Amino acid sequence: MKQELIVSLDNSGTRLDFFLSKNVESISRTKINELIKKGNVLVDGKVKKPSYILKDNQTVCLSIVEDKSKDFLKPFKLDIPIIFEDDDILIINKPHNLVVHPPQPGINTTLVNALIYMKKELSDLTPLRPGVVHRLDKETSGVMVLAKNNSAYLNIVSQFKARKVKKEYLAVCWGRVIKEKIVVDLPLSRDTKNRLKMKVSFTKSKNAYTEIEVLKRFDDATFLKIKPLTGRMHQIRVHLKFLGYPIVGDKKYGIKDSFSDLLLHAHKLGIYHPSKGYFIEFTAPIPVRFNDFMKNKHTFSETEKS
């Protein structure tokens, strides 16, 4: 349900919560305060506090989202590693081989279901994907941010759209990458033969930029630091495949190897705090599977370069 109200001269100078409790009789004042704090009430398109003093001719938009998630999102008993948490954001270290949210009804073994099991409060602007502002592939591990309220959700989504979010990945690919640094500027589009995959294409495509830096070389593989400057689906995996350096364990874009786990990890994520404004960066430690892959090759160090 969506309701739009125009502030009259008589109501100018009234608190936002008082104004709504007076003009929306079907909702209790407690519920109104809850909706305001969650970001379901916008004044001239912006989230405000319950104590905000209204002005003449302002537009107040109230949204009540029908909650379909109770039947759709069931708790999944799995403890997710928490890196950081406050009133606005939840920073987690997503395990590999875990889907972020249910792709369809009946699938409840996802990150979101696990956070419901952990009783985490999440934004409900997208009820079937609560708190989710970005995703990692099922096979990819690493740092993710989730929004705990709707104001934080809108703020972080806008940061992703404006490319203010800083992302850094670690990967191990097949082959020895010769250049120390590579900048890939190759547009991507859906693969017309398989809509679940992406491909490099110069027709009906979107620009995609990836910065690649060599951290360590082995006889038949290379350890990489990767910064995707855009956020296209499967961007890192497709760009590396196109260069001839598929990621170890990549069943979708890689070679047929004997490694069951994808060696791609979201190592760092930096955002501007949605309510405090300062830049903050989070790190998810290098997974054991990376060291396991290279234990017979070399003692692993993320800062070492050949």
Set down the secondary structure blueprint.
Layout: E1 2-6, H1 16-23, H2 29-38, E2 41-43, E3 46-47, E4 59-63, H3 69-72, E5 82-85, E6 89-94, H4 111-117, E7 141-147, H5 150-161, E8 166-174, E9 181-185, E10 188-191, E11 194-200, E12 209-217, E13 221-228, H6 235-243, E14 264-272, E15 279-283, H7 288-294
Parallel strand pairs: 7-14
Antiparallel strand pairs: 1-4, 2-3, 2-4, 5-6, 6-7, 8-13, 8-14, 9-12, 10-11, 12-13, 14-15
Helix pairs in contact: 1-2
Largest sheet: 9 strands, mixed
Q: Taking all residues together, what is the mean pLDDT?
A: 91
- The CATH architecture name of the largest domain reads 2-Layer Sandwich
Radius of gyration, in Å, reads 23 Å
Summarize this structure as a short list of keywords or feature phrases.
306 residues; alpha+beta; Structural Genomics Hypothetical 15.5 Kd Protein In mrcA-pckA Intergenic Region, Chain A; Pseudouridine synthase; nine-stranded mixed beta sheet; four-stranded antiparallel beta sheet; 7 helices; elongated
Outline of the structure:
With 306 residues, this protein is an alpha+beta fold. The chain has helices at 16-23, 29-38, 69-72, 111-117, 150-161, 235-243, 288-294; strands at residues 2-6, 41-43, 46-47, 59-63, 82-85, 89-94, 141-147, 166-174, 181-185, 188-191, 194-200, 209-217, 221-228, 264-272, 279-283. The strands form three sheets. Strands 5, 6, 7, 8, 9, 12, 13, 14 and 15 form a nine-stranded mixed β-sheet that branches. The protein has a four-stranded antiparallel β-sheet with strand order 1-4-2-3.
